[in-house]
Amino acid sequence: MRRGRNNVHPVIDLFTPCGELVALPKPARDVVLALRVWAVLIREKRCPHHAVAAHLGSLQAAAHLQLMLEEIGAAWPDRFTVSPLCCRHLSHDEATLTEMMRLAARQDRCRFDRLLGEMIGPEQREMLFLSASVLGRMMDAARA
């Protein structure tokens, strides 16, 4: 029987937490918190832009996060999972999003494609890579 990391069966490994929010670098943590705030406010049928902007540094970055989330919603094979605002652990999708942002910031298209290659098609990966790159630049500009 094939084992995953830490000698754990791969099916069991799917249920292990992806990491803790506090362990992320501040920009990645800001994106996850902005995502969670966005999800809560959308569920309440409230405009999330100003609350999200407080995490990302600008209204322009907040608007772009919303566009990127719409692209993710169209591309993701399953419903994108967002942990509750107070949760210290990342969902698998949140962890994937932070890795997408990290790879886009480094302009590492090859690893970005490997990360998402089995999940979504090349055209959708292209859109997400561009969106993640632009969002990262907007956040950097807002902090400068």
How would you explain this protein's 3D organization?
It contains seven helices and no strands. The protein has one domain. Helix 2 crosses helix 5 (92-105). It is mainly alpha-helical and 144 residues long. It starts with 9 loop residues before the first helix and ends with a helix.
Could you give a quick summary of the protein structure above?
The chain has 144 residues and is mainly α. It is built from 7 helices and no strands. Helix 4 packs antiparallel against helix 7.
Describe this protein with a few key phrases:
mainly alpha, 7 helices, 144 residues, single chain
Number of strands: 0
Q: Which secondary-structure class do the elements indicate?
A: mainly alpha
- Percentage of residues in helical conformation: 55-70%
How many helices? The count is 7
- Low-confidence runs of at least 5 consecutive residues: 1-6, 8-14
Q: Give the CA-based shape.
A: globular
Question: What is the succession of H and E elements?
Answer: HHHHHHH
Share of β-strand residues: under 5%
Q: What is the count of distinct domains?
A: 1
Gap from first CA to last CA: 52 Å
Radius of gyration: 15 Å
> Averaging pLDDT over every residue, what do you get?
88
> What does the main sheet amount to?
none
